[in-house]
Amino acid sequence: MKSFLQTAFYWLNARTWTWLALRIVTSRDIQGVENIPRSGPLIVTSNHFSVGDPPILTGVFPRRIVWMAKQELFDIPIFGLLYYMAGFIPVRRFEGDLRALRRSQDVLRRSMVLGMFPEGTRSGGRLGAGEPGSALVAMRTGSPILPVAIWGTEHARLPRDLFRRTRVSIRYGKPFKLPQGRKVTKAEVASGTAEIMRRIGELLPPRYVDSEDGSQSDHQTAAAEGRS
Fold first, then answer.
1. What's CA 99's distance to the chain center, in Å?
2. How do the domains of the chain map onto residue ranges?
3. Res 145: pLDDT
4. Mind listing the pLDDT tens digit for each residue in 22-67?
5. What CA–CA distance (Å, rounded) separates 86 from 168?
6. At what angle do helices 218-227 and 186-203 cross, to 10 degrees?
7. Where are the alpha helices (H) located in the chain, listed in sequence order?
């Protein structure tokens, strides 16, 4: 019953009102929708430049997303209650939050979509380093990962931009899986995290992605320019 009420709240409120707001305040360039699996468990992993990223992705994604969000958002009066009612998962960031991990795995076992920002926080306009949570969940559940890139939101400022349209670009990559083993090691999680961030980076224009030496690789440049 609880799950049913959360699903109903999501589609009737979180998704509907977000979609209507986006129609008013943004123009959207979306590519790769054909890569989105229409059923089955899925982990959506995206870069995170702005507070506008989660509602925008919620408003355009064709399936319900159960977002993992920082605990601080759930502590805000009224707004925190809305996060709970939508079925989102609170996470104590940068520590081993086993309860959040179990809840995220349960979402995937029910063949739903789990939304995660691997960077763990807003990076402010450059793709940052990934935290291990996304790779760990993917390896433990065997769920496919959908890499997503979103940009344009880094320029938006509220309340100023409520009165002018912000152009937002979204790219969906092809789903992929990380290798599974009987026991997931720290090295495997680190490798998986690097792979997730690499795939997100390939979807972004070159100006948003630095290689380890501070330059853009030829492969990343060609891939990103082809999608921008």
1. 20
2. 2-227
3. 98
4. 777 778 899 999 999 999 999 999 999 988 898 889 989 999 999 9
5. 24
6. 50
7. 2-9, 15-25, 53-60, 71-74, 79-85, 98-109, 133-141, 186-203, 218-227
Per the DSSP assignment, residues forming a β-bridge with 44 are 115, 146
pTM for the whole structure: 0.82
pLDDT, tens digit, for every residue of 55-83?
889 989 999 999 988 888 788 887 777 77
Q: Which own/partner contact pairs does 158-163 have at CB distance under 8 Å and 24+ positions apart?
A: 161/25, 162/25
Q: Which CATH architecture has domain 2-227?
A: 3-Layer(aba) Sandwich (3.40)
The residue to which tokens 């009737």 are assigned: 12
Residue 93 burial (CB < 10 Å; 0-12/13-18/19+)?
middle
Q: Is the pLDDT of residue 161 over 80?
A: no
The partner residues of 147 in beta bridges, in order of sequence, read 45
Q: Which long-range contacts (CB under 8 A, 24 or more apart) does 81-89 make?
A: 82/13, 82/14, 85/5, 85/6, 85/9, 85/13, 86/6, 86/9, 86/10, 86/13, 86/14, 87/3, 87/6, 87/7, 87/9, 87/10
